[in-house]
Design goal:
- The complex is a heterodimer of chains A (284) and B (266).
- With 284 residues, chain A is mostly helical.
- Chain A has one domain.
- Chain A is built from 13 helices and no strands.
- Chain B is built from eight helices and ten strands.
- With 266 residues, chain B is of the alpha/beta class.
- A six-stranded mixed β-sheet of chain B has the order 6-7-8-3-9-10, sandwiched between helices.
- In chain B, helix 6 links the parallel strand 7 and strand 8.
- Chain B is 33% helix and 22% strand.
- Chain B starts with a strand and ends in a 6-residue tail after the last helix.
- Chain B has a domain of 185 residues: P-loop containing nucleotide triphosphate hydrolases (Rossmann fold), CATH 3.40.50.
- In chain B, helix 3 runs parallel beside helix 5 and helix 5 packs parallel to helix 6.
- The chains are: A mainly alpha (284), B alpha/beta (266).
- Chains A and B meet through helix 1, helix 2 and helix 6 of A and helix 2, helix 3, helix 4 and helix 6 of B.
């Protein structure tokens, strides 16, 4: 290798590549944005995911919710349709975000997780990016749910919708943190995929998305209080029903306490889940 | 020559395993060196390379890369290395360029922009220039699944070099490639070494690929069996396998060393 060739090489490279890399916080933000963009691209490139995000609301909202509304909602003392629509919107955010997060496990198959884990960025940036990337699909599913709800004749105010939209990133983060905990604890890929499907499904029934849980007792009461979605639903309903006569019948907890509970659960689950996930990749 | 990689008494025992996969391995690599790490299947090559690239935690020992500890300063180490995995590590649903862009932005070389056109001019020129060099300019915007195995390998190298690593790990980079693709890939790797002074750490089962390395280490059953230049290794041959036809190859020396150390060559 001659000195001349080597120097020429370096010279041509220094002209082409920025010498100074991003580092610290700006680099972490850039990494999160990059991973989020990948999540959005993957959704847009996958017709299956787009169709699912519209079919799921038809099943959940139209079939389950519609039947409950027509056959079992009498005597509640408030409009069940609106109660269920809000529940389904939060439920879709939770389910879709958790399922999107399973891409971290699927990526192991194509070794893409390796490509991300080898990058000089925090593991938290990788996880938060993946969660927010699947939040895009989750919000698409919400649009589908809303469309089905409107077709069923359920009305919801623009202000209420904006409030739900404003809270949706926090809901997705809470859902993702819970999903991360599952991925961190359950190492086996098949078991993760089953858990990612079964736990949100149980959560839908336990946390009051479609069935009110104000009168739950015993095991069901304990389980409902362990589910992060219970608090997310209650917070969203507190915002949506604020100032209405139904507030007392629909909302269970003080919104400030609910908000604090969501933040604490999210922070703990995200930290522990990410730590366990990163550890399971390196400690074999 | 300044050392860019130092491994001291490295040990790895997998969970629930009875023996060490890597058992007290020590060696070093100089800056700009072309280094080959050879050994039969199951000898501990991939385990070692996984620890060096921070994707696997060691049970004991010390690894220093570019002056940083691979366990305590893993992020700093990751800034200085690039790796071509045994299996392609692309997102098969994205295009070739999107995979490169994802990598460049994840490494902080560029800020993320949603399309190729919106990326800085230096990025666009660099990608097209590299694609031209390795002969995949026509395929840059095609989905990964439409590229051949050889093209994917070349693309992986382009992607890894976008963040100009000081040390490039190649874990069996030519497995599954045809002869033409293999030669094309090596021409490009050699060019990169010459032009950028990149240190290359190679593991391969094709011993002829390691014929021109500066230093070779042979690992057998988790222990280092030999660590020297290919010439010195060939000199240790006890018999000349092809005395009247040509000089002994590194492969001859490699197999004899493994036989001596009771390694399995199967």
């Amino acid at each position: 290798m001659t000195e001349l060739t080597m120097n020429q090489g370096f010279a041509s490279q220094s002209k082409a590549i920025p010498r100074r890399r991003k580092s610290g916080f700006p680099q972490e933000v850039n990494a999160v944005a990059t991973i989020v963009a990948r999540g959005i691209l993957l959704t847009l490139k996958s017709p299956g995911a787009l169709i699912m995000s519209l079919v799921m609301p038809v099943i959940m909202m139209g079939m389950i919710g519609g039947n409950l509304s027509q056959n079992m909602a009498g005597g509640l003392g408030y409009d069940y349709g609106q109660f269920m629509l809000v529940g389904m919107l939060v439920n879709m955010l939770f389910m879709t975000t958790s399922q999107g997060l399973s891409s971290l496990v699927e990526d192991r198959e194509t070794n893409f997780t390796q490509e991300m884990l080898i990058a000089p960025v925090s593991r938290y940036s990788i996880v938060i990016g993946t969660i927010l990337g699947s939040a895009f699909t989750a919000i698409l599913s919400c649009t589908g749910t809303l469309a089905v709800g409107l077709l069923m004749g359920i009305s919801i105010g623009a202000g209420q919708l904006l409030a739900i939209l404003a809270l949706s990133p926090l809901m997705c983060l809470a859902a993702g943190a819970f999903g991360m905990l599952i991925i961190g604890v359950v190492k086996n890929k098949r078991a993760v995929n089953m858990a990612i499907m079964l736990i949100p499904m149980s959560q839908m029934f336990l946390s009051g998305a479609i069935i009110p849980i104000n009168a739950s007792s015993g095991v069901l009461l304990v389980l409902s209080r362990l589910m992060p979605m219970t608090y997310c639903l209650d917070l969203v309903r507190a915002v949506v029903y604020a100032g209405t006569p139904e507030y007392g019948a629909v909302v269970m907890f003080n919104p400030a306490i609910t908000f604090a509970a969501i933040l604490s659960l999210t922070a703990v689950f995200l930290t522990v889940g990410t730590w366990l996930f990163a550890r399971s990749e390196t400690h074999k | 020559m300044e050392k860019i990689l130092e491994v001291n008494n490295l040990v790895k025992r997998y969970e629930r395993a009875r023996v060490n996969a890597v058992d007290g391995v020590s060696f070093s690599v100089g800056e700009g060196e072309f280094f080959a790490f050879l050994g039969p299947n199951g000898a501990g090559k991939t385990t070692t390379i996984s620890i060096l690239t921070t994707t696997l935690a060691p049970t004991g020992g010390e690894v220093i890369i570019a002056g940083y500890d691979a366990v305590k300063q893993a992020k700093k180490v990751r800034e200085n290395i690039g790796i071509i995995f045994q299996q392609p590590s692309f997102d098969p649903q994205l295009s070739a360029e999107e995979n490169i862009r994802f990598h460049a932005c994840l490494y902080g070389v560029y800020g993320y922009r949603p399309t190729f056109r919106l990326m800085p001019k230096s990025y666009r020129e660099r990608v097209m220039e590299l694609a031209e060099i390795v002969g995949i300019a026509d395929a840059v915007f095609k989905p990964i699944k439409k590229l051949s195995g050889g093209m994917q390998r070349k693309l992986e190298i382009i992607r890894t070099l976008v963040h100009t690593p000081k040390i490039l790990f190649l874990d069996e980079p030519t497995t599954g490639l045809d002869a033409v693709s293999r030669r094309g890939l090596w021409d490009y790797i050699n060019r990169t070494r010459r032009e950028n002074g990149t240190t290359v750490f190679l593991t391969t089962h094709y011993i002829d690929e390691a014929e021109n390395v500066d230093k070779v280490c042979i690992i057998s059953r988790g222990k280092i069996a030999a660590c020297c230049s290919p010439e010195d290794l060939k000199r240790t041959l006890e018999y000349d396998p092809t005395p009247r036809v040509c000089l002994p190859t590194l492969e001859d020396a490699y197999i004899e060393y493994l036989n001596k150390t009771e390694g399995s060559v199967a």
